[in-house]
């Protein structure tokens, strides 16, 4: 089995509080992993460490066999959409996406225009990002992610602020992306959404992953919500 993401014994503390107490997680190519846990469980901390936005005390984090010492080669393995998207407010959404495409060395293609249309951003994509709503910022980031098409897309609460049409588009594009060889990790507190979209779920509790398995193996006759409450 090929593991795209490998996390071993990951530990992280804030002051004297240890948030991650030895997280172990292996994500194989083609997974749509729902990363769930209570508020403050360390979901965002874990994602920020994977994407190099936070340091950590000890442990191993690798994507495609590369760790963060590989620099740009490591960063090109993923595209990260944080819960709060902070970018230059005077730049247009389209210019920002083109800037990201240049960083990832992605040539211009018709997929960008296609994604702008399906997310209904035609009238907004040329406007300054500072005029965007919270939901529009997430749409812009999703357009960039699917256009760049990295090995893995990592998202922190990606459905926050999305209108119903955008949620449907999100589901369809995630499925298409994975069918073509992509891998997805996204944190969410919406357990019903995770149950419908994800192929696997990892539950973070007490600073460790206490359960990581396929949805069909976890739920059986129960809902993911009931499994989470019992964990």
From TrEMBL:
Keyword Thylakoid annotated: no
The UniProt entry, under SUPFAM superfamilies, shows: P-loop containing nucleoside triphosphate hydrolases
Keywords on this record?
A: ATP-binding, Nucleotide-binding, Transport
Domain ABC transporter as annotated: residue spans = 5-231
Any Pfam family hit:
ABC_tran
Q: Which GO terms describe its molecular function?
A: ATP binding; ATP hydrolysis activity
The UniProt entry, under PANTHER family, shows: ABC TRANSPORTER ATP-BINDING PROTEIN ALBC-RELATED
The identity of this protein, by name, is ABC transporter domain-containing protein
Species of provenance: Caldibacillus thermoamylovorans
